[in-house]
């Protein structure tokens, strides 16, 4: 009878753990906002149980995470990176074969615009357009001056305050009686929408997606009739010193999943998952609304999502992986 040598035993053990060793240890950036934390927790659970990776969440934020991935090759994955903010550095990292754009975390991109409540559009269908909003300007009563109409902008100090202000100027909304209202904070802005909705009152202003607010309240994005002028938006609308802004719709902000080249090469099957994993804004808005209503963190929301939305996540993975994840739940 042959006795297995330690070497043979080691080889057998390696063969049993082929999947785990292929994937190995994976670090995932857990960013400090709700959608990013949710996605990071989903990725950790699916990699761990579906692909037998040793997956770990580490704290992250846009700029430091992107920089660290380029310079140090860590973490392995940034699940939700708003890539415009460091596009040149990311593109250089890809060109130097340090990084990969794996896929789109938000398939619609981050969405910005001027919005009105859907119940207003039901009553006045022309309010889908900026001309329709201007025609009914008197309905949007200013909270402190009934002779003026309110346009709710971004809080002071945010970049969207600049873009919203420039578009307000480009469309000459002041000529229809509108005045910019600074809500003071993100909570003030979302609170103004909630209050209008509770009372079924007119509301007009800036907002963005994906957010819990647009998951809870049915809002319609106003069409400026201009299409998107990317150059105008980047070079003038977003700049404080934009002298003569022209009207353009907000272009979608690309929101990518970024991985290191090392991880993608080492774990092609796990990497492929990231090329397929992505959320529409409509779905993400709904999940964020649930998170807010239930005061849920990223991990609690991850269990909710995997249990309630199998029709979404099971499309991202092969059947055998989906079964392992389902069993782990």
UniProtKB/TrEMBL annotation:
Keyword Signal: yes
InterPro entries attached to this UniProt entry: ABC_Gly_betaine_transp_sub-bd
Single GO MF descriptor: transmembrane transporter activity
Superkingdom of origin organism: Bacteria
Keyword line: Signal
Pfam families membership: OpuAC
GO-annotated cellular components: ATP-binding cassette (ABC) transporter complex
ABC-type glycine betaine transport system substrate-binding domain boundaries: 25-308
Signal peptide residue numbers: 1-20
Name of the protein: ABC-type glycine betaine transport system substrate-binding domain-containing protein
Organism: Photobacterium gaetbulicola Gung47
